[in-house]
């Protein structure tokens, strides 16, 4: 049987960029015999409009059953006044929670043709290809106690940084597995100098490496130094593994080393299942972009590259992923630009569909 893929286009530009990914999926089926059992369903505002909830139970069940989920984006002004419990974002949060997606993969990859687009010097970013693995379901965003409490005659805001050994262990494994598909090099970042959770983090990551991943070259760095090193010379890294809070900040920082929001893919992975594949949700980093929705202006590359990540990390189709990434490199090198990738020099930007067609043409070339 073919591997299964659930597509959730969502709202705003989500369906627009997803239509281009459908072309890519069909191309691999028609030209390389790489076939998927594809189904499509609603999420976010689109689901709310039909079902009154941002994720129907049936959709949730499907997401748990498939090999991978590919999501466009959710949200939009139409839904801003909805009750918190049915807001589009809740659909995405439910997916992440019930699929137990604890490992968030955020690549920072520089496409040569866009190296000038970075705010950093060209030689600092040219050829950059690193991956931040952020722990996504624990740490200071979830730890108890949390809240705003009365204390004497003033209030105190409290969040708790809390990590268990098993939470650290599983995200470390996820990073080491990933590194085996890349350079074999991992840098773990925490603040063991001032935080107990950081001391435990460092110990557990090292132990997992020594016990089960002796082939991995592991280093440790304090997260503040990591931030400096990321901007100074990011090419010293391959895979970086870090906690939820540091990962939130470091992954946004790393992403912007290379340019537009319209270019950034992501993956969120859970534990390996019976068939060896992890629960997996792939999505562009960007949102539903209501300011350009419905105008054919959206850059589909972030969503296309999210599918490339699915090929690599869910479907063991690394060669196809390489091929798709090379096609994106090629169209950019040939000068193809959606509006978000155009500098002050101007020119006529490609539409979403034209960019998708250019990628298909590059695949076929
Ligand atoms: P956004 O990412 O949707 O847009 C930010 C800016 O980047 C906009 O100017 C937009 O036009 C541009 N942009 C984003 N993706 C682009 C693409 N593929 N091609 C060209 N330009 C692109 O973030 P914003 O405006 O803060 O949020 C809009 C809506 O999206 C909100 O309802 C928000 O809650 C939701 N959102 C959803 C996310 C998700 O589904 N994972 C993530 C972030 C926001
Ligand atoms: Mg962030």
Verbal overview:
By secondary structure, the chain is an alpha/beta fold. It folds into 2 domains: 1-114 and 260-365, Isopropylmalate Dehydrogenase (3-Layer(aba) Sandwich), CATH 3.40.718; 135-256, Rossmann fold (3-Layer(aba) Sandwich). It is 40% helix and 21% strand. The chain has helices at 14-32, 45-51, 57-65, 88-98, 122-125, 165-180, 196-212, 223-232, 244-255, 301-313, 318-333, 352-364, and strands at 4-10, 37-40, 68-73, 103-109, 129-135, 143-151, 154-160, 185-190, 217-222, 239-242, 265-272, 278-284. Strands 2-1-3-12-11-4-5-10-8-9 form a 10-stranded mixed β-sheet, with helices on both faces. The longest helix has 19 residues, at 14-32. The protein is globular, with a radius of gyration of 21 Å.
Biggest sheet architecture = 10 strands, mixed
How much beta, percentage-wise? Answer: 15-25%
What structural category arises from helix and sheet content?
Answer: alpha/beta
What is the helix content? 40-55%
- CATH class category name of the largest domain: Alpha Beta
Count of domain modules: 2
CATH architecture of the largest domain: 3-Layer(aba) Sandwich
What is bound: which ligands?
1,4-dihydronicotinamide adenine dinucleotide, magnesium ion
Which segments are poorly predicted (pLDDT under 50) over 5 or more consecutive residues? Answer: none
User: Compute the gyration radius: what is it?
Assistant: 21 Å
Count, helices: 12
Shape: globular
End-to-end separation in angstroms reads: 29 Å
The pLDDT mean sits at 95
What is the element string, with H for helices and E for strands? EHEHHEHEHEEEHEHEHEHEEHHH
In CATH, the topology of the largest domain is named Isopropylmalate Dehydrogenase
The CATH superfamily of the largest domain turns out to be Isopropylmalate Dehydrogenase
Across the major sheet, the strand order is 2-1-3-12-11-4-5-10-8-9
